[in-house]
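Structure, all three chains, one model.
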Amino acid sequence: MPELPEVETVRRGLAPVMEGVVIAQADVNRPDLRWPFPENMAARLTGRRILRLGRRSKYILADLDSGETLLVHLGMSGRMLVSGDPLGRFVHDHPAPEKHDHVVLHMESGARITFNDPRRFGAMDLLPSDAPQRHPLLSSLGPEPFSNTFDGPHLADRLKGRKTPIKTALLDQKVVAGLGNIYVCETLFRAGIRPDRRCETLSRKAIEALVPIIRDVLSEAIEAGGSSLKDFRQADGELGYFQHRFDVYGRENDPCHADGCTSAIKRIVQSGRSSFYCPTCQR
DNA sequence: CCACTGACCTGTCAGC
DNA sequence: TGCTGACAGGTCAGTG
């Protein structure tokens, strides 16, 4: 579900409750999510202090004092909810257990982190902290959108001559990490480019101009606490608010937001996924 | 290497 | 009310 802004929002919510704190107990309620959990995951988490909570693309990475890092992916419907923090930053009482609470971390502080994922497209794994990039899920990821290695020339080189639609290319995590369906649609609206436009027909200048737009869209979404459609919640259970600012995503037949434009937003399906765009503003 | 398809799961909603 | 089918934020394996 969650794209980079939602994952970053969750990470920021979890960090004050998890960083520097020992995992007193780990409940692992089933053998797998999308893939089997690593061997003895509960035992490898129990008693370990979390040194730092990081993020790479849509993955949350918790460095442990054992030299291992816990990798968490929220898939489409995953949530990580905090309850019962005694320091009062999270006032929520522990909720009653729910159907899809697959992993529960009981922190030494009294806080509890519940991983709930109805569709089970999420994942957890343990990897060596000193070489996270060797993990198969991380090894072929492209640059982080906010890093210095993601810039106009990189993107232009990466897309040069490709016949694939720009929408598909921006969803490709090897090109840039962290974009998903929502933020690609919003980016292309701001850029004035139709989602079905083939990369090879775009000028180098037009491709380079996408870089600051991608950063703007993502940082505005992080600022708003992500986007809540059906499932997404921040770590404290609150909704995100960026969905109120969508220009195109989910707005089929609604009026275009651009000044003076009287067109309605269109929806098309590209490689099995919906794309939304304004047929007048995007060419 | 590139481009496309189907698969993994469950829940929700629209339409009949 | 109840059934059916379409659809959902992601990503991988398999095919040509």
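The beta strands of chain A are 23-28, 50-56, 59-64, 68-73, 79-83, 101-107, 112-116, 123-128, 266-270, 273-277.
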